[in-house]
Each structure stands twice: as structure tokens, then as C-alpha cells.
Design goal:
Layout: H1 3-23, E1 29-37, E2 42-49, E3 55-56, E4 63-69, E5 73-80, E6 83-89, E7 92-96, E8 100-103, H2 117-129, H3 133-140, H4 144-161, E9 169-177, E10 182-189, E11 194-200, H5 204-211, H6 216-220, E12 224-227, H7 231-240, E13 245-248, H8 250-274, H9 284-289, H10 301-306, H11 310-321, H12 330-346, H13 350-361, H14 363-371, H15 377-391, H16 399-410
Helix pairs in contact: 2-3, 2-4, 3-4, 4-16, 5-7, 8-11, 8-13, 12-13, 12-14, 15-16
Length: 423
């Protein structure tokens, strides 16, 4: 070997060592060479397994004889100086006396992945930080399906690592899906503030399936479940978690009462318009919020109340009910409810009376609030995130993708691949 050749091979060895460090690999793996393609702005790192060292069975980790090599594969790695960086290798196959022939585990990647661990870890962070999948795909220079694959693998990893042992207080809720035509049911852990699982549909059987994603032992540990006043979630809870207290949370109650006030307002507004009175025009916001918005308005809230409008009375019943939640215990709560119910029953406010009857039917679940002060407001808090997922048009074509994206962003899962060398 002449002087120039010696110099070149020393430089190549240094570059190879550098890439070995970047990938976090060591003996028996080594970088044989790094091919630089300036025109294509591409670096290909070729890795090989030391032929002198026995290979390890992917099943049991025993040192075995080398059978042959799997066909050459390529993995995308983190870009270096804006050069697309690829790892190329032919992975040896071990011949284990016990497990037969199997491809050796490569320390820079997870089985079946087309990316190195470093790339996937980076991609997970980029996707977490991005508002849309499209944006993440652009930044990572990947197609949409590859980003979805990385997310699916991350969620699978996260679910395998997740512990649900301490799940005691859950929330069940429905979310619209595919432009509101279909629904999904979502189960949340109200203590750790995370989405636990999502299933298609909102029928009783769907909710049972949702609850049964928790292992039986853990289902037995559920103390209370917050839900709306529909029959399905309650029926599913009685079936799958019979010991759990059913709590109808205040979020849904106030939603129904708000709707009732608005119904009364609209009826009253129509009637007043017939006589040429516009005093209720544009007051939707006012009645729902109970506060007067800034700006010029012909009548103040007090003035409207003085006119003894039906809407004002409906609003008073709604506001009075807020005090129910502060009654402290079920006895006082029951007493308060009775009084409130009788007051509403004496009124002629049909929409409010309808809600009152519904509340009476679900009184046990309302009174359970005092022993288990749960609220699904947390689930509602996830709404904005889930809304953003849905707004990303391509994201909700398919339920499996929708589920993965909800769990990725709202599941508080440990999504990062292990980047430490495995061999
Ligand atoms: Zn083996």
C-alpha cells in the first residue's frame, strides 16, 4: 500500500467510526463504509456484522452458528448536513438449535421498521409538536402513510408499556366522527387525565367492548364512572363494571339546562316577534352566559327580568340548579333536588320541565356525585385536540387512524423507541 492509499484508508476509517458513533452501534457491528453521493445529496452507511463473532438467536439470545444473510435492506436515518442518510446492511441469520433460522436483531432499528431508532425517536417528537399530519410529513420529508405507520408503531409501543393498574375513576363519552355521521366512544382515566381507549360506535355493546379493553382484574378496581344520562353507557357499566358507581356529571346536566333555556327563549322570541316586540333579539349569548356583553344594547338583564319573561324564569331555574352541586352530601342534595323539581313542575316552562323529569329519572347518578365528585369536563378538554385531529381532513377517513391519532396525542403514552444499542 502506497502513502496515498494509506492516507485514504485512514480517512475512511475515521468517517466509518464517526458514523458508528452517530448510530450508536459497536462490536460486533461496524460501519464498513460511508458512500457519499453529492449529486443526490445522499449518504449511505453500510454496516456489517463481524464475521468472527457468533450471532445471537433473536428468540432466546443464545450465541449460535451463522446460517446465511437476509437480503440487503435500507433504513432511513437522521439527515446529516441536509444529506438524506440511509443505513444499508445485510443482517445475518442465526441457526438456533432450539428456534431454528431467524434474522438477528439489528440494534439500530425495531423489527419491520424502515427507519433507524434515532429517526423514529425524532419523528415522534416532530409529530407531537406539529399541528397537522401534513405539516409533520413535510418536515420529515415522508409521505402521509409513513407518518401514520410511525404513529401506529409509537402507540403500540406506548400501550405495551402502559400500566392501567391504578385506573379507578373513569369517564365515558361519545365523539362524532366522519363529519358527525358516526360516533366513537372514548374512555378516559380521570385521575391521570389521559385517554385510555377509543372504539367505534356508541351502542351498549360498543361501550362494553370499550370497558373490556381494561383487563378483568383492573375493571374490578374501577370505583366510579362519569357519563351522560343516555342509557347505553350506564347499561354497559352495569355489565362490565357492576361495582362502579355511575355518576352523571355536571357538564352534561348544565348542557341540557342551557339547551332548555335556549328553547324557551326561541319560543318566546317567536311569540314576541308576532306582536312586533324585538326585546329578545340577539340575546342568545346573554342568557347562556348570564352576563351582559359589552356594547350598546337596548335592554339590560335587569330590565329583561323585570318584564318577567318566560326566558328569565327558565334561566333562573338553570342558575338555581348550579347550587345542587354544592350541597355537600346526598341527603342535602336529595332535599335540594326535590324543592327545585317542585318549583320547575309548577312552572309552564315545558323544555325545562322535560329536563327536570330526565334529571329525576337519573337522580341516583346525580346524587352519586357527592360521594364521587367526578366530571367529564376533562374529556371535554380533549375536544379541542380531537377537533384538530378531525380537521386534518385526511385523518378521519378511517377509524383505525383516528384511534391511533387520539391515543398518540391524548393517551399520555411513552412513545419513544429505545435508542440505546441492544446488542
Ligand atoms: Zn434460540
Amino acid at each position: 500500500m502506497n502513502k496515498d492509499d494509506l492516507k485514504r484508508s485512514a480517512a475512511e476509517a475515521a468517517v466509518a467510526e464517526h458514523y458508528g458513533l452517530l448510530l450508536g452501534i459497536g462490536s460486533p457491528w461496524k460501519v464498513r463504509k460511508a458512500d457519499l453521493n453529492i449529486l443526490e445529496r445522499k449518504v449511505e452507511i453500510v454496516i456489517e456484522h463481524d464475521a468472527q463473532v457468533p450471532v445471537l438467536c433473536p428468540e432466546c439470545g443464545q450465541a449460535c452458528a451463522r446460517h446465511d444473510h437476509a437480503p440487503e435492506r435500507t433504513w432511513r436515518h437522521l439527515d446529516v448536513m441536509q444529506f438524506t442518510t440511509l443505513v444499508r446492511a445485510r443482517i445475518p441469520r442465526a441457526n438456533c438449535p432450539q428456534h431454528g433460522v431467524g434474522t438477528v436483531r439489528a440494534p439500530w432499528t425495531e423489527p419491520h421498521s424502515r427507519f433507524t431508532l434515532f429517526f423514529e425517536a425524532f419523528a415522534v417528537q416532530v409529530i407531537e409538536a406539529c399541528r397537522s399530519l401534513t405539516q409533520a410529513a413535510e418536515l420529515l420529508r415522508l409521505d402521509w402513510d409513513s407518518v401514520m405507520l410511525i404513529m401506529a408503531r409509537a402507540v403500540k409501543r406506548g400501550l405495551e408499556r402502559r400500566s392501567t393498574e391504578e385506573v379507578t375513576h373513569i369517564g365515558l363519552d361519545e365523539k362524532s366522527f366522519r363529519r358527525g355521521q358516526d360516533y366513537v366512544s372514548v374512555m378516559t382515566d380521570l385521575t391521570k387525565r389521559r385517554v385510555l381507549e377509543v372504539v367505534e360506535g356508541r351502542a351498549t355493546a360498543d361501550a362494553v367492548q370499550l370497558l373490556e379493553t381494561l383487563p378483568e382484574e383492573q375493571r374490578k378496581a374501577v370505583v366510579a364512572a362519569a357519563m351522560d344520562m343516555g342509557a347505553n353507557f350506564a347499561a354497559a357499566t352495569r355489565k362490565a363494571c357492576p361495582q362502579a358507581a355511575i355518576v352523571h356529571d355536571r357538564f352534561h346536566v348544565s348542557m341540557h339546562l342551557n339547551e332548555a333555556v335556549d328553547k324557551v327563549r326561541r319560543q318566546q322570541h317567536r311569540r314576541l316577534l308576532e306582536t312586533g316586540d324585538k326585546s329578545l333579539s340577539g340575546t342568545t349569548f346573554l342568557w347562556l352566559q348570564g352576563a351582559l356583553p359589552e356594547g350598546e344594547r337596548a335592554l339590560t338583564l335587569d330590565e329583561l327580568c323585570e318584564r318577567n319573561l318566560k326566558t328569565a324564569r327558565a334561566w333562573t331555574h338553570k342558575e338555581t340548579f348550579v347550587e345542587f352541586w354544592s350541597q355537600g352530601d346526598a341527603t342535602r342534595g336529595g332535599h335540594f333536588f326535590k324543592q327545585w323539581y317542585n318549583a320547575v313542575a309548577r312552572s309552564k316552562l315545558e323544555p325545562v320541565k322535560a329536563v327536570a323529569r330526565m334529571l329525576k329519572k337519573h337522580l341516583l347518578g346525580l346524587l352519586n356525585y357527592f360521594a364521587h365528585p367526578l366530571t367529564n369536563a376533562l374529556t371535554e378538554g380533549f375536544n379541542s385536540k380531537i377537533q384538530a385531529i378531525k380537521a386534518d381532513a385526511r385523518g378521519f377517513r378511517n377509524f383505525a387512524n383516528y384511534r391511533i391519532r387520539i391515543l398518540f396525542h391524548c393517551g399520555k403514552l411513552d412513545l419513544t423507541p429505545l435508542t440505546a444499542p441492544q446488542s
